[in-house]
Amino acid sequence: MAAIFLRALQRQKRRLEAKVEKENLLLMQLPELSLQILQLVQSRGKATISDIVTITNANRNTVKKHLEMLVETKRLQKNGIGKGTWYTI
């Protein structure tokens, strides 16, 4: 019984390692600003466009484009509407 459980854990570990490797490859393809935005949202739990613009010193419209792409690729989730919008992982 223990051997079956151990094999199942090993298979799960290999699948998770492959998933992590794939995610790392995808992250390496992101522009620097997108990576900064992801790190910012992850460290704070949530962030608004104004937060991101203030911290990164990036142009507001550039930040919006990066956020749109991150939401489309499901790396971030958009919450709220209009000026009350914030982003989470």
From TrEMBL:
Pfam families: HTH_5 (PF01022). Residues 35-72 form the HTH arsR-type domain. InterPro entries: HTH_ArsR_DNA-bd_dom, WH-like_DNA-bd_sf, WH_DNA-bd_sf. This is DUF977 family protein. It comes from Chitinophaga sancti.
